[in-house]
């Protein structure tokens, strides 16, 4: 029966062949998959230089990796900024509560001590979040440094590559930030993996 079907394999459209191949893979029918591949019509193509197009394709993949790193880090910064905004709002509300408690003529209102602790907690949270934002900016700059080193290794211009990848979101580049060499190496390794796919 399969031999009768094999006669018709060269007549399948590309879509039919794709769906048959997916069905064969789903049932783990390697023989059928092989038969579909062997009977696929052969075509000749003219292609652009792989040394150009291949590199551009590889750089697209590196750009995807670069932007994934950047977006994750920028989302982290946004989260810390939201925490700061929330804590500043809490701070203002607690501050008002302290003034209300202090203005109580009996002055034995224990609420002001609780509010004072909450006020200090808010300040501490704001300070920690601001420090986390600085550390997170350092991560973003480390991603940029990894790209710079990677571009140097493959012989492409870093500044133009970054502009291509970032579409203008590299304003942090000239800030004084201490770089984490381990993070740079880790991110550069990711870029190499994207490059070699």
Written overview of the protein:
This protein has helices spanning 2-6, 14-26, 30-38, 50-102, 111-154, 158-166, 181-196. It has 197 residues and is mainly α. The chain folds into 2 domains: 2-38; 54-196, no CATH class. Helix 4 (50-102) packs antiparallel against helix 7. The longest helix has 53 residues, at 50-102.
Any descriptors?
single chain; 197 residues; mainly alpha; elongated
End-to-end Cα distance, whole Å, is 40 Å
Instruction: Say how many strands there are.
Output: 0
Low-confidence stretches: none
Mean pLDDT: 81
| Apparent shape | elongated
Helical proportion, percent range: over 70%
Going by helix content, strand content and strand pairing, the class is mainly alpha
Per DSSP, what share of the residues sits in E-state strands of 2 or more residues?
Answer: under 5%
How can the largest sheet be summarized? none
The count of domains is: 2
Instruction: Determine the number of helices (DSSP H or I, runs of at least 4 residues).
Output: 7
Q: What sequence of helices (H) and strands (E) makes up the elements?
A: HHHHHHH
Rg on CA atoms, Å: 30 Å
